[in-house]
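Re: your question about General secretion pathway protein H

S., sorry for the slow reply, the queue was backed up all week. Below is exactly what I fed in.
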Amino acid sequence: MRQDGFTLLELLTVIAIISIVMTLLASGISRGQAGLRDRQAILTMLQSLRQAHTLAVIEKRQVPVHIDLVRLCYQVEQKTSKCLPPETRIKVETAIGVSKEDAVIIFHSNGSSTGGNLQLETERRNVRIDIGWLTGSIILKELEL
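Result:
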């Protein structure tokens, strides 16, 4: 005699497959979100540097960008500081040398700057922001991990 429906073994198998698929999807989504967070933090820093350069030229005055390597935060002039994700490793090299705790990049009214480069590295990205001393140009370069 045949009964309609599923056996307990069939139901448990389907539940196991669904849980495996959900686990894989969840880990993929979290990795994707972390990658987006890293990208957003890098682009925000790049935008802040470019705004400081533009502000210096338009208002014909020096505009400093302070970078706190311990707290992983940076600040244009006396505005609100912005911070990078906590797992970010940052290295700043200016004309003075490699900074350990804090660094300052100054953009001048004629478009030049003190220059240097910032290297930002996370588990997923490694980039360098080059700041030209003569023109104050700000260029983002992707590096290999």
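The two ends are 64 Å apart (CA to CA). The domain at 8-142 is CATH 3.55.40.10 (minor pseudopilin epsh fold).

Happy to talk it through on Thursday.
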